[in-house]
């Protein structure tokens, strides 16, 4: 113990410890700043869909997917010629009542009488994988659809660029949609969210985004 105390009393050792500590703080601050910038920029490039089922029962979960399909079909028609997230949000905002009517009609046609709440806002999303595209956790602008009591499992996807796919098991995202997303992001940002990129540094950066989001050290909330 005495040797250890003597070691800490050494001015050179003290300097090394101080410099190491300062370097750690600097690196941490840089990592948080970088991750916050990337996370925010990615969030600013996409418009998402968030559907919440009435409950976790099998019939309510199946109904959720049916409602989802109807809404996506309508959204794809509305935004077929959209070139930006802002344009997609504007069009969706102007047609909120239509989204609600479509959801209600779909629910009624399936033999249910659940209510529906539809809104556009900035909501928290977990890390999600869409085929070979992965989006980090964070706050994203989204069309949120709550069915009935909205106490069931969530379903998330991206409405613009349209990364949603109705056959979830296939995990196939249209190439055109990936190209639209790539055009909305910087080369580095797209490399980070694309699972096709085997560059270890990009995979590491995505993991950093996940960790910092999970620990609450960064947020893209507006």
How would a crystallographer describe the biggest sheet?
4 strands, mixed
Low-pLDDT residue intervals, each spanning 5 or more residues: 166-170
Number of domains: 1
SS class: alpha+beta
Order of neighbouring strands in the sheet with most strands: 2-5-1-6
Distance between the termini: 52 Å
* Oligomeric grouping of the chains: single chain
Q: Helix proportion of residues, in percent?
A: 40-55%
Q: What string gives the helices and strands in order?
A: HHEHHHEEEEEHHH
Q: What is the CA-based Rg, rounded?
A: 22 Å
Structure description:
- It contains eight helices and six strands; from the N terminus they run H-H-E-H-H-H-E-E-E-E-E-H-H-H.
- The chain is α+β, with helices and mostly antiparallel strands and 222 residues long.
- It has one domain (41-214).
- The strands form two sheets. Strands 2-5-1-6 form a four-stranded mixed beta sheet. Strands 3-4 form a two-stranded antiparallel sheet.
- A hairpin with a 2-residue loop joins strand 3 and strand 4 (133-135).
- Helix 7 (187-193) packs across helix 8.
- The longest helix has 33 residues, at 11-43.
- The protein is elongated and about 80 Å long.
- It starts with a helix and ends in an 8-residue tail after the last helix.
């Amino acid at each position: 113990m005495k040797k250890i105390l003597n070691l800490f009393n050494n001015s050179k050792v003290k300097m090394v410890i101080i410099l190491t500590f300062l370097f750690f703080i600097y690196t941490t601050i840089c990592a948080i700043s970088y991750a916050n910038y990337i996370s925010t920029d990615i969030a600013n490039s996409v418009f998402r869909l968030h559907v919440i089922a009435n409950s976790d029962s099998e019939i309510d979960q199946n109904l959720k997917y049916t409602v989802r399909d109807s809404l996506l079909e309508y959204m794809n028609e509305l935004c077929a010629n959209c070139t930006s997230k802002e344009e997609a949000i504007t069009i969706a905002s102007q047609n909120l009542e239509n989204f609600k009517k479509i959801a209600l009609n779909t629910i009624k046609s399936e033999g249910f009488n659940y209510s529906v709440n539809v809104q556009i806002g900035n909501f928290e999303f977990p890390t999600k994988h869409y085929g070979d595209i992965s989006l980090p956790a964070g706050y994203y602008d989204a069309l949120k659809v709550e069915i009935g009591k909205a106490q069931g499992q969530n379903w998330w996807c991206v409405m613009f660029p349209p990364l949603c796919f109705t056959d979830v098991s296939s995990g196939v995202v249209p190439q055109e949609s990936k190209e639209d997303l790539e055009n909305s992001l910087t080369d580095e940002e797209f490399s980070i969210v694309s699972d096709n990129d085997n560059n270890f540094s990009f995979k590491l950066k995505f993991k950093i985004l996940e960790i910092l989001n999970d620990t609450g050290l960064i947020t893209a909330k507006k």
